Amino acid sequence: MIFNLFIPSTISFCFSNLAANDPVPGIKDEDGNWNLRGHCNRIIYITEKDLKLFQSLFEDANTEYLEAKLPQIHSQEILKVLQRFTTVDKKLGDYEKAYNISVIFDETYSQRDGLTVRREDPTFQPKKPEDVVLSGPHIFVGNPLNKNPRNKWQKKRTLMIQIF
User: How many CA atoms lie within 13 A of 22 on its CB side?
Assistant: First the structure.
């Protein structure tokens, strides 16, 4: 299997073994474009052992390994990381009662429910904390002020929202 393919020539490059000594390229390149390069370690041979691994990591105990979800694995190195997860004594599922996963703030529902509104003024800069909604690009390694939205509007880049 080869996942995250964007053009057919990537498959040929994966089988060419030309980049065997190079690091496996990520899904996107340094400029944020889809990475079209191949690498021999992008070819994943799924064995019965791997299917049992996926079952142990992603399914409950009642699911047969042949019915387990098949994750999209980008490289052989990522498969090795998943294999390492099985070497720990406790798994996240063992702490089922110790945590609760919930949606804290959902942009789509908040607009529907009238909690937020899309700003028509693309140059809007919040004046007080109540007017700010932090999203993924703003947060980096525990720093919620990592980035600031651009003053000039760019489609599909910045969406300013005001909380009521």
Answer: 13
Buried b (16+ CB within 10 A) or exposed e, 56-84: bbeeeeeeeeeebeeeebbbeebbeebee
Three-class SS state of 91: coil
pLDDT tens profile 53-92: 999 888 888 999 999 989 999 999 999 999 998 888 887 6
Please name the residues in contact with 126: beta carbons below 8 A apart, sequence gap of 6 or more. Answer: 132, 162
Please tell me the pTM assigned to this model. Answer: 0.57
* Closest of 35, 45, 39 to residue 18, by C-alpha: 39
Q: Of all helices (H) and strands (E), which one includes residue 163?
A: strand 161-163
Do 102 and 147 form a contact (C-beta atoms < 8 A)?
A: no
Task: Examine the pLDDT at 40 and tell me if it is beyond 90.
Answer: yes
Q: How far is CA 150 from CA 70, 137, 159, 161, in A?
A: 39, 12, 10, 13
